[in-house]
Write a structure and sequence with these properties.
The chain starts with 10 loop residues before the first helix and ends with a helix. By secondary structure, it is mainly α. It has one domain: Orthogonal Bundle (Arc Repressor Mutant, subunit A). It has a two-stranded antiparallel ribbon with strand order 1-2. A hairpin with a 3-residue loop joins strand 1 and strand 2 (about 70-75). Helix 1 packs across helix 3 (about 45-60) and helix 1 (about 10-25) crosses helix 4. The model has no long low-confidence stretch (mean pLDDT about 85). It is about 60% helix and about 5% strand. The chain is elongated, with a radius of gyration of 21 Å. The protein is built from 4 helices and 2 strands.
Length: about 130
Amino acid sequence: MDWKPEKPPTAKEIAAKFRSDIADGVYPPGRQLPGAKGLAGKLGVALMTVQNAYRQLADDGLVAGRQGSGTYVLDPKTGDPTAQESAAGLRDLQQQLSHVTSQLSELQDRVGRLEADRSDRAVENK
């Protein structure tokens, strides 16, 4: 993994990066993810942060841990969506959520400005 964020990433950010990489085929089914301890050191985060990220990916059905072996991208099962398709869907949902969050923030700013203008006009009319 050649990812070098400017500041230590959160578990959510690490999981999002791996979802994107799985969706893009960087980590195809059966491929092992980097060791949690080594990745934690490389990213400058606690081991628990990487473990939480991997747990998020496991909860999404994208990876599975093997005792004493590591964490692997799941192989697709017959009739089920592949890990890449699942990751792509999750990545799309993350992007949509980010867009909606941005729009909500803009709306909150606009409402705040409108309320301030309304308040100013009320004071002027007195």
